[in-house]
Amino acid sequence: MKRRWPWVLLTAALVLGFCEILARWALPDVPGSLEENRNPFRFRGWPEYIRDVGRGPKGATVVLISNSQAYAGDYLGRQTYPARLEEMLKGRRVDGRTDWQVLNWSSDGMTSIEYVLLARYLQLHPPSLILAVTGFADYSLEHANRGFLHCRTDLPRLVGRPAILTGLPRSYLKRHGRIEDGLAFAVYDRVALYRLKEYFWSWLDVRLPGIHEMFYAPAVNYRPWHLKGKAWLPEMELPRPPQGEIQFTYDRQSGQMLAEFLDGLKDAGVPVVIVAQPRRALLQDERAQWDAAFIEDLRAQTDRRALPLWDMRDALPNDEYLTSSHLKPPNHQRMAELLCDRLEPFLARTP
Predict the structure, then answer these.
(1) Low-confidence stretches of the chain (pLDDT beneath 50)
(2) Domains, the chain, ranges and CATH?
(3) Rounded to two decimals, what is the model's pTM?
(4) Distance, C-alpha 216 to centroid of its chain
(5) Which of 54, 200, 247, 331 could cross-link 320 (Cys pair, CB 3.0–4.6 Å)?
């Protein structure tokens, strides 16, 4: 009986190896977003999800990191202010150039967990300039002490790369690091069979719409693949338990998360501009106190690091907002113009 075990293990290894080869051959590519200025799949398709910053025009590649305001899922990519900013930089021949590109590294629901990962990535692949447009909700207590699976983007897959992992702050890993999360993301990038479950969920979501709500689906509220086909049944209407509101608060822990992000950006070794993002005036609103605490801390922390801060919170008219922070097209246009107006003299002073 004992002599059979080596053969059993060998057979199992051969079967798994064959299945892995088959999965690599048969599964379609993970959807990326090279074709779009915005990221419709929330950074899906690593490492092909975005144009490589190292291959862009030398001295004319801007990476803009932000949240749902710049992601602007309600509008087509070229309507967002990052895309308009790119066209303005080219049209005005800022710094005497017409080859500007603005890479919009933004997504809805972005947290400091993802910001720090992007900052570390940029240390290894520095662009010409980094614009970080951010607000107090990005450092909410809701995100403190949460694992990587709390994120709504695919960015935690970067943790599976040794060059990224070894450069992350110890305080960051202590707060967010979960061994099981890191292993899961490391395997995802290396084993095609692991991606099979997401393809299966995408297929089921087409055939049985709403099934994600009935059973556990892998920590996503969207399907990675947009597959063709007809539904077998009408969409399932299931009761949803009441959910509490996200606590958009800003306190000492929030300040630590902000510090990690700013340190990561400064270590990229390229010009960085921090922008306090526009928002509708928060008069007589509980969030006003968190906004005030955030900007006070942001000023202090950028001063200590000698990083330029542009406070644009009140730069746009209140009647052109969709929500307290999401912009209508006229404000996207105004935001692009304001950024371009400030970038022209800033770049002229930057060696």
Answers:
(1) 33-41, 48-49, 216-221
(2) 53-185+246-349 (3.40.50.1110)
(3) 0.82
(4) 24
(5) 331
